[in-house]
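Moderator note: this is an archived Q&A kept for reference. The question asked for a predicted structure of one protein chain; the sequence and the answer are reproduced below.
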Amino acid sequence: NGKHYTLIDTAGVRKRGRVLEAIEKFSVIKTIQSIEEANVVILVVDAQEGITEQDAHVAAYILEAGRALVVAINKWDGLKEEERDWIKREIDRKLMFLDFAEFHYISALRKKGLPELFKSVDIAFKAAFAKLSTPQLTRVLIDALQQHQPPISKGIRPKLRYAHQGGSNPPIVVIHGNHVDGVKDAYTRFLEKTFRRTFQLSGTPLRVQYKQGSNPFAEDEDKRKPGEGIVSMRRRKTAHRAELKAKKVVEDKDRSAKKR
């Protein structure tokens, strides 16, 4: 369709025991290098062999590398209906962590399903390099917080304030807040799925990173009284500010009365 693609072929990763160990190691290294060089990876799975352990390992590395991904289940036309159902169950069980990727059931020999495959490659590439504005990201973050607050960690609930984009390929969302070290992995996955769904980022993983905001009480920690915790110090400072505010209100009333 008038577009240019650079295809990086791999040496292939075979099941252990079929080739010499040195050749196997070389092919795996070349596959890893190809993944790192690519913008979009097409993971080809042999439907007649099922989802192998090595398929899952390569898929995990693609995710770790942050690469956009399309999965091609090859030799699909040679399977019976019950075999196809079994493969789909295997995909759900062994490749559940690739829920962001599009899966295509193809026949390379008969050239079936290839146009749809490249449509997903284009979509994944576009998603990997998407530009996400700070106001939109922050709005999505606020909506997510209203739907589901991060769990309390060590007696303190993390406070997430705003978000901005920190990179592309894969998209990185940087969230600023306080006590961000206490954000649980499950909540981070919830935010990743929320951002990906809202911005329709199909075919690419998405990273959420946290940045700790400045602590307004940090400079006062050395001023705590002996044996006083941070929470107690904050309460004391809050009460002191309230007293000053009340004193100012009384003084303003006195001045107004004298003028009258």
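Archived answer notes: The beta strands are 40-46, 68-74, 102-105, 159-167, 172-178, 207-212.
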